[in-house]
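Thread title: Can someone regenerate the structure for this chain?

I was given the following input by a collaborator and told the matching structure tokens would be attached. They weren't. Posting the sequence so someone can regenerate them.
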Amino acid sequence: MQPSAFATVLDGRDFLEGPRWHAGRLWLSDFYQHEVLAQDAAGGFEVVARVPRQPSGLGWLPDGRLLIVSMLDQRLLRQEPDGSLVVHADLSGLVQGPCNDMVVDERGHAYVGSFGFDLMAGAPLAISCLVLVAPDGQARRVADRLFFPNGSVITPDGRTLLVCETFGNRVSAFDVTSDGTLGQRRDWAVFGPAPEAGAMQDVRPQLSVGPDGAALDAEGCLWLADAIGRRLLRVREGGAILDEFPTGAMQVFACALGGPERRTLYACVAPDSLAQAQQGAGTAALWSLEVTVPGAGRP
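Best answer:
Regenerated them for you:
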């Protein structure tokens, strides 16, 4: 049953991810239906791109062209004005496992996370990296030794990147230089010790919070989709939890702040994340609730 705090915006999907508020409407991906969706003028959703190898993170170049993470072939795609998709960057030589979520700054620098291991096949936890893709498509690793780098946001001044480490019990922060290079990792929020690498059934009990997608608000707090705890959390730097909205039987994997005043918190929910459970199931949904503090920074 849907908790009373939430309204349903979209349902009947397989697995929704990567929500972003851009140009006055919400955009998001459906992994297992291989579609990128965007709100239309009537508040419904239209398919704006089809990505056979599983779309995930979304972002935009300064000229408005859409970037899409193609997870399984480890590529970053670019949608041209005629709607066609081309390879913006091939990341296959830089990452292990599927690529993941992404944020793109105002200059067109894209920061792409990756699993680091084959989660869907039950492989043991392994550390991963963050890849920087320059506006011209040149790619390089800019951070290593991360535990499943996932949802990311950039602060309003463009000087700090926050990265959720889903299996690391933490959110990390990096200073951003003018060419997109990152400084040393530092803790932004810590929810428990970093887990010991090993089988995922042993790792999950070590996690207090599994920060997946995230959204930054105007008070400098993060809304986190806690993929382990089935809840949305509003967290202050340092790790203090200020607000909590349980999602009941549904797991929550991503969130975004949008709407005309960016006070609508959108949440991507599903009973599971595994392809064998969700592909073709039509049980994933997009929920929303209204919050007091508006969104800020690169959404």
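The domain at 7-290 is CATH 2.120.10.30 (Neuraminidase).
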